[in-house]
């Protein structure tokens, strides 16, 4: 109990102020005294000095492994102990080893994945190399692929897994890079895939259920992108087929499409990012971007988000002469459509430090604002005001008007302003288009120096003009985020 209390006290137990480092064998060997004792267990290095006095077997037992790989010793005595959890605050980092990256020209001896790839260093690879690596193991019924991302703060949005017809693809997003494990599995697995995270250690596990309880000799055959770590931008779009499960009217021309992900897919589209839909129209592949929303705007922001991870909701305007949206509108419930991995460079951290958030949306430019609004009101405690300024042609075009008005009544931090460019004479609200005077009226800091973020989305010209007006009003580039293609 004393150890748990100490490890939860927030004290820096590694002496590295929360940083994770790559540890070479030479470096590990230097930390071999009671006052400075590092031990490696299964590739992870722990500073066990603060733990010495709490170790039930005494200091001498621990010192047997000081400055070395203590995995075997540990397994002899403590195999059942959850050391990862117990020592997580003592984690220094991972041993500096790097599996060989398989390029498209695979040599014969590397074609079969049998456990961890050879731990050889690539020419020129430095100890600071942040390339993730993977390993796998099995029980009678499960296959577990472990990916060591070397990044703290791994979460569901950074891991995308698909497993179809024995083809497994796991992608990990590490800043603007992506690491992919892609294998033609040795044997068949069941439909459902589980993904777990050790957030602090940056470890991700993909757990597959074997179809037959037989021993696998190897994981499978590596596919083209297997074990590659490249810029996200350089990775081609990956699609999976999703089933249309419902289609609901939002306005006279806009619908809410609900798509169901395959059971064997793990995919959460991050706030502010979009996906691509792909259809074959008149014999040609056509691809268009869409920004997932929530099924509705939750009024009680203390509740968790209503997205369940199994469905993707898209709010799409059907243009009467639109190539893609007409074809989309003709899909029947039960039909399938290809959905890509998420893209986009919006970072939630931009909101996390803001006190005033302004959302300027025109038409379906409202879509990225939905998750953003939910995230801001649920998770950003420093926000004082959230204001949506929503531009539409007519009253009939306003998306989720009722829900927005209800939300404004319910949450005093939130305010919505509708501005119409082509109102009927009954409209008593604001009329016009985005302009410098509208923005100076509605976008105001709540305090002289408050931190502000202004997000803008709509037709390209609307967005471009809006950004220019905001700059003219004195807002800096860092204070403005424009959603564009
Ligand atoms: P097209 O065949 O390309 O165009 C046919 C006619 O439709 C045009 O002549 C014009 O009259 C009208 N039209 C088409 N596109 C536009 C337009 N962009 N602005 C004004 N009139 C147009 N749309 C959504 O409904 N929901 C979303 O969540 C969404 N997210 C997007 C995210 C990103 C990053 C981007 C860049 C765009 C997004 N769009 C969204 C727009 C979407 O990608 C398509 O452009 C739109 O659905 C029209 O496609 P279409 O093939 O039917 O029209
Ligand atoms: P819309 O109904 O045609 O227009 C919405 C409002 O914007 C109207 O008041 C319209 O005024 C005004 N507007 C249009 N063009 C303008 C301009 N150049 N300058 C000032 N105001 C302008 O909009 P929509 O059909 O829903 O289209 C939404 C747009 O958002 C699409 O282009 C879509 O691609 C884009 N979008 C982008 C993203 C992204 O992430 N990048 C996401 C979703 C949507 P008028 O009366 O003058 O037309």
Describe the structure.
This protein is α+β, with helices and mostly antiparallel strands and 485 residues long. Helix content is 17%, strand content 33%. The chain contains eleven helices and 28 strands. The chain has helices at residues 2-7, 25-30, 59-63, 71-78, 83-86, 323-329, 349-352, 367-379, 401-410, 436-442, 460-472; strands at residues 21-23, 32-33, 36-41, 44-47, 91-95, 133-138, 142-148, 159-164, 167-174, 177-185, 189-198, 203-210, 220-222, 228-231, 239-249, 254-260, 265-266, 275-281, 284-290, 292-293, 311-317, 336-340, 356-362, 385-392, 414-420, 430-431, 452-457, 480-482. The strands form five sheets. The chain has a seven-stranded antiparallel β-sheet with strand order 19-18-22-15-16-21-20. The longest helix is centred in the C-terminal third of the chain and has 13 residues, at 367-379. It is globular, with a radius of gyration of 26 Å. It starts with a helix and ends with a strand. Bound molecules: flavin-adenine dinucleotide and NADP nicotinamide-adenine-dinucleotide phosphate. Flavin-adenine dinucleotide binds next to strand 19, strand 21 and helix 6.
